[in-house]
Amino acid sequence: MSKVIRLPKKRRLWPELIIILVAVYLLYSFAHLGLALYQTNLQIQAYENQKAALLQENTRLRQEIQELNSDSYIEKVAREELGLVKPGERVIMSAQPGQVRPYKPPEPGHQFRD
């Protein structure tokens, strides 16, 4: 009987190489998605901070509108900036040397218009 000599089988590297390439691709994909998720979360946080600041400013502006529309503020502006007086009031103006301006009251029945 003759002995059969078997030669060692040649190893194929293709399946292992394909598995390694797929694993590297999957790791890269997950890392890329993780980075995109992180950046998106940073943007969300920035937008939430901006929203909070805008809501705070909106609240402040609404309060300012209420104050500006109040009767007491309108009267204050009318008296201080426009020089208006209520009927029957007397106006006392302090005179400064060299800058005396005579007060001319509005005509009776005169109405101020916007």
Summarize the structure.
It comes from Neomoorella thermoacetica. By secondary structure, the chain is an all-alpha fold.
Uncertain parts: none
Quickly count the helices: 2
The rounded Rg comes to 43 Å
Estimated share of beta-strand residues: under 5%
Largest sheet: none
Outline, from the CA principal axes? rod-shaped
Structural class of the secondary elements? mainly alpha
Quick one: how many beta strands? 0
Q: Give the H and E element order.
A: HH
Helix fraction, binned, reads: 55-70%
Q: What integer is the average pLDDT?
A: 86
| End-to-end C-alpha gap | 126 Å
Keywords: Cell cycle, Cell division, Cell membrane, Coiled coil, Membrane, Transmembrane, Transmembrane helix
InterPro entries: Cell_div_FtsB (IPR023081), FtsL/DivIC (IPR007060)
Protein name: Cell division protein FtsB
GO biological process, one term: FtsZ-dependent cytokinesis
Structure description:
The chain is mostly helical. It is 57% helix and 0% strand. The chain contains 2 helices and no strands. The longest helix is centred in the middle third of the chain and has 55 residues, at 14-68. It starts with 13 loop residues before the first helix and ends in a 34-residue tail after the last helix. The mean pLDDT is 86.
